[in-house]
Amino acid sequence: MTINEMRDSIDGVQQALAERSYLADRGLATTVHLALKLGKPVLLEGEAGVGKTELAKVVADALGARLIRLQCYEGIDVAHALYDWAYARQMLYIRTLEATGDARQGEEVLDELFGPRFLERRPLLDAIACDDEVPPVLLIDEIDRADDEFEAFLLELLSDFQVTIPEIGTIKAERRPVVFLTSNRTRELHEALKRRCLYMWVEMPDLDREIAIVRARVPEAPERLAAQAAAFVHELRTLDLTKQPGIAETIDWTQALLALGQEEIEAGVVDLTLGSVLKFHEDIGRVRDADLQQIVERARSVADDTQIPAS
Amino acid sequence: MNAGDAVVRKLVTFGRILREAGVEVGPGRVQDALRALDEIDMRRRDEVYAALACTLIARRDDLEIFDRAFRAWFEKDPTRLGGKAPDMGIGIDERPQPPAAAPRPGDSEDPEDQDEEQEEPDVLAAYSADERLRERDFSTLTRTELLRLRALMDRLVRVLPTRPSRRLELAPNGFQIAPRETLRRAMRREGEPVERAFRRKKRVERRVVFLCDVSGSMEPYSRALVLFLQAAVSAGRKVEAFTFGTRLTRLTPYLGGYDPEASLQRASRAVPDWAGGTRIGDAFKAFNDLYGRRGLTRGSVVVIVSDGWERGDVSQLALEMARLRRRCHSIIWVNPLKGTEGYEPLAAGMAAALPYVDVFLPGHNLIALESLAEALRASGGRRSSVRPATLRSAA
Q1: Could you tell me the residue ranges of all domains in chain A?
Q2: Any CB–CB contact under 8 A between A196 and chain B?
Q3: Cβ contact, residue pair A28, B32, below 8 Å
Q4: Do A45 and B183 touch (CB under 8 A)?
Q5: What is the pTM of this model?
Q6: ipTM reported for the complex, 2 dp
Q7: Which among A165, A143, A142, A166 has a CA at the least distance from the CA of A154?
Q8: CA A216 to CA A210: how far, in whole Å?
Q9: Which of B47, B60, B293 sits opposite A30 (nearest CB)?
Q10: Record: contact A199-B53, CB cut-off 8 A
Q11: B172 near A CB under 8 A
Q12: B274-332 pLDDT, tens per residue?
């Protein structure tokens, strides 16, 4: 699947993602299609574990592009995100030149010192200076963790896709990278940054889709097991939990059940493996209190009623 | 005149509808939406919906308004634009009371103006029981009190706690060599790094989260506090403000802006449960679930202003306090009743919450509130990993 085919139609996007076991609904596929077509970054928000980061990975794979990932954190700055000079190597290099009695002119040495050789590219510069055939996919993960100043800096970068390094000059992206930003909404992002992006709120999938996702991701799991596991997690989401299990948890859990040789879910094994689905002590307690047996029964009957979609 | 024009006109009007419903939609967005519509199959509802949503909307809270507007406008669904769109209270002229009429703490205000403001969008009608939905004017304080508060606000805004940043700054007494600066200085000495430069961790603001009880018993104190929350938020400080009574309201978005009076009015309109009952446990649970889980409290100082009168389940309050404490840097509890002589934390809620509180302060008057400023300044240091066993109480 080339970038052009994905640009051509929304069906193309949906299909390309599905081939890589990522089942996107029409809305998400439309947004990805528009992002490719309009050359705009996509801002993905949603609960943890709905597949925001995964989307970027799959799109990169579908395009045959390199995925460049920048994980944001509090206090991230240009030296971590864009570029830095390799000071230690520069120093050593100067000493070596002295020791070997290199007779070159100062200007020449200086150019070399502050040239590509001693430039340490960080993800953002990597994405811009990338000269691959296919433009890379740049994933800026958890942008809400970085501070405001960094956001302002990104703003500039995302509108021009060029950076200026005083010692070298301006580097401009030959082909614009496909940019995904993800946020967990720990804080509201700046309006100006949002304006440059397409916004997508990623929802938890409905039961049918989740079953399909589990089956696509864990193809070796029996149909019944996949359906029941998804139904069980859906039942869990209706309980009042500290952290609702995401799709990632459903997949993990199905794999765990499979590893234990289960064909169907049953209360005993569910109880033992609850730790793959729920990551908070209180939640596990709450689910046990809420009568595990009953939830399992409900999940089994729901799964039986659900027509298993053809994969 | 062609089909394209019709689409443009329709879209522009749609943008205006969204704007009237309180969604920020700039002209640039509408342009993006137009470009997006070019790229999709206009006959497919889901594609049109997604194309417009991802270009016109930028936050999740607006999606619901968008959804209603989309149905009303493009599908001519008669189920209207949904009650009232959230009214941020912009442009409504409601003069505050003249300062002469200032009630003292404890005074209840006219019962007459309670009823007329009962209409609220349905969304808010979830709670019932002892909740009195009404709006309050925060700004009925005497002039001297206000002046005093202003000074206090400025001080508070200046002393917010800090934490070490990951970034480094140049400092003569730093702990680490600063290569860039060292090299630069070495240039002056023919490449010999004679003078070394050092750097150390920069300190940046630590977030402060205020949880402010606005139930009946707390009302006069909360009003004063909301005043300086406004100062802190509008000064662009890392402050988040919430109020709780029977439900939780995030106040921060209403407190910004340059005009304190206008933002206070916006804020008072945003709080539906002003001077009602208290269910602290429920409110904290809502806070932990909605905001704590997203990491808002991580590393931040949480200031709770409440008298600890819990009408709900006390064990839930203890549970939620424990959750809160695990997720934040420290908890400061300001209790106005602590100022009265011979006070013992007898209110069941207060007693349940105390084990999780790092600093317990009185808050009955302005001087006591000043001690809050002190406590805040002092709270920037290292987090104590153990549950605070002995209670320090300043002032």
Answers
A1: 3-73+128-202, 83-117, 207-305
A2: no
A3: no
A4: no
A5: 0.63
A6: 0.73
A7: A143
A8: 10
A9: B47
A10: yes
A11: no
A12: 666 778 888 888 888 888 877 777 888 898 888 877 777 788 888 888 888 888 888 88
